[in-house]
Amino acid sequence: MTTAVAHPPVDSHEGEHHEHPAWLAHHFDDAEQQFDAGKLGMWLFLVTEVLFFSGMFCAYALYRNRNPEVFEFCSTFLNEKLGAINTGVLLFSSLTMAWAVRASQLRETKTLIGMLAATLGCAAIFLGVKAVEYSHKWGLGLLPGNLYKSQIEGAPHSEVPYLWYLCIPPLVLLVCFVLYYVYGVVAASKFHLRIAGPLVVAAGCYFAGVGLGVFLESGEEHSSEHASAGHDEHAAGHDHSEDHAVVKPKVDFLGTTTGPLNDVAITPAESATPESDVNQKGMAGLFFSIYYCMTGVHAIHILGGMLVITWLIVKAANLEFHSKYYGPVDNVGLYWHLVDFIWIYLFPLLYLIT
Amino acid sequence: MSAPTQEHSHDALGHGHGHGHDGEFSHPMPIWMLLTVFVALLALTVLTVYQSTFSLGNIEVWLSLTIATVKAGLVIAFFMHLLWDKPLNAIIILSSLVFVALFLGFTMMDAQGYRENLIMKPTLDDSQPAAMDVPVSK
């Protein structure tokens, strides 16, 4: 406790019976010990996370080793562009998170809240794009395990508006946050406005992500509709040149097919040949089990990260961080970078198989 | 929480950046370093997307994994600033990667042994229910 006395405590209004600042738990000698203890615990947690994800990477490695052609086939259903954009978004959120740690150390509260808000917004964009990817696949019947529907041209697509369902929770949150913001304005409370602003922006960013995803996904959809209609080749050809990278692998895989007819689904005749066994529940369905498991658990980690970043924004709005107490920002940052770290491996392993 | 930051940081400066008991222990990353790492990560992402447009056969997965590992290394070293962290923390996280390598390595080593037990079997008839439980005779 002597060191705490030597330094004028940052906040002493709670120190009725202890001579230490409120931000220093009484069982620690000094700020550095508290920081190091917290950080050690965080690294140990990250080790458990790495080992947890490695189980899923192990399943991936085994099944890809067993049936590489299934992975080549199924990877063509994943939109590379959306995956690449999400990678960029996550990398940017890592940048803003690292910047937030710096701002908390230097006690730049405005920068800190801004950077945390940017991180939260990027996480929301990521989830918005992910929602478009998921709902698109659900509509096509690209589902895990036995739910998988063989991709046959002309098969009826599900008419369930999955994307709208996925937009309901964020929409409710957006309304709540806007109401909270209005409350902050009415109450003229800087504290509440500092929290509500980033939350409104983040909820809005989800819909920006959805819009971005729909825009990029619709390009592909558009061309396939033209193709299956079988006429208007001229207009379809224009779209194809843009989607060439996505379409090409499947054409290579099937070997026999050329032309725009095989953009999204393969013909029944081909699915009956032995090489097309992959387009079955036991094969492609298992790929999608692995896909949904890995990206889904990753998305849950994003959601968890968003919750703790919100907690950080509340603390930052309360002006709690300074050069001797920034452990929470640093540790949440470590967690966030780990989520980014996992995605860095997921992206090439799932989206970029040729 | 109102805090006299100014006095605080002056105080800290007086003690220098040593690891003394009541010295300053924070290490703010310079902004240029953060931005450089970010640009490098973006460039590597573009590279990995670009290399996937070539078909390089078996090397490809190893190439993309190598690029991913370089990216992961940048994230760990700079964004998680492990380079300036306590050696103990570095040992902990790196040892976890060693154990992951052991885990995956040993699993893949005898994968051929139970290859046929992996349930990824084709079912030729799409209407057949419970595709993965039914043994397929080919």
General description of the model:
- The complex is a heterodimer of chains A (354) and B (138).
- By secondary structure, chain A is mainly alpha-helical.
- Chain A is built from twelve helices and no strands.
- The termini of chain A are far apart.
- In chain A, helix 4 runs antiparallel to helix 5 (109-140), helix 5 runs antiparallel to helix 11 and helix 11 (281-317) packs antiparallel against helix 12 (327-351).
- In chain A, 45% of the residues are buried.
- Helix content of chain B is 55%, strand content 0%.
- Chain B is mostly helical and 138 residues long.
- In chain B, helix 2 (31-51) runs antiparallel to helix 3 (59-79).
- Chain B contains four helices and no strands.
- At the A-B interface, helix 2, helix 4, helix 11 and helix 12 of A face helix 1, helix 2, helix 3 and helix 4 of B.
What's the topology here?
The complex is a heterodimer of chains A (354) and B (138).
Chain A (H helix, E strand, L loop, with lengths): L1 H5 L24 H36 L1 H8 L4 H26 L3 H32 L21 H26 L2 H40 L3 H10 L1 H11 L13 H4 L9 H37 L9 H25 L3
Helix pairs in contact in A: 2-3, 2-11, 2-12, 3-11, 4-5, 4-12, 5-6, 5-7, 5-11, 6-7, 7-8, 7-11, 11-12
Chain B lengths: L4 H11 L15 H21 L7 H21 L7 H23 L29
Helix pairs in contact in B: 2-3
